[in-house]
Amino acid sequence: NDLVVPIALLSAWAIWFTIDKIDYGSMVRSIRSSGGGIHGLRRGVKFLHVFGILFVAFIVVLPNAYLSLDAAVPAGEKAEVFGDLPNGAFGGGIGKETYWVHAYEWLAQQDTEITNPKDRPGYISWWDYGFYGSAISKHPMVADNFQDGIPPASNFHTSTSEQEAVSVWIVRLLEGNVREYGSVQPSVINVFETYIEDNDTDDIIQWIQNPKSSPSYGNQIAEPISEDIEVEYIVGQQWPENAVYHDIADLLSSYDEETITMIYRDVQEETGYSIRYYGVETYDTQIFNIFGYLADKSLLLVAGIGDYAPEDEFVEIRYITQNGQELTYQAVLDRSDDKNRQDPIYNTKTVYKDAYFDSMFYRTYVGINQTNQDGSISEPSYQIPCINMKHFYAAYISPYPEYAVSQGKSAVVIAKYYEGAKINGTISFDGENKDFQLTVQHNITHYGSQIPVDHDKDTAVNGSYEVIVPAGVSTLQIRRYPELTSNAFVVQNVTFNSSVETSSLAPITEEEATRTGPYQRTVDIDITPGEISGFVYDDIDGNEGYNASSDVPLSGVTVQIIGIDSLDPSTGQPLAYDYSMIKTIITEENGYYNASNLLPGYYQIVVNDEEGFQIQNTLYPIPGGINTFDIVKPKPGNVEGTIFFDTDGNGAYDSGEEMNNVKVDLVYMTTGEHNIVSSLTTDADGAYQFTDLIPGNYGLQMEKLPDYGSVVEITITENQATKVNASIQYALIELNGVTKDENTMQDVANVTITFAPSTSIGNNSAQLGSIISDANGDYTLDLMPGTYNVSVYETVVENNVNVTYSYHQTLTLMVGQGSRIYDVLLARQEE
Question: Is 148 within the bounds of a domain?
Answer without folding.
Answer: yes
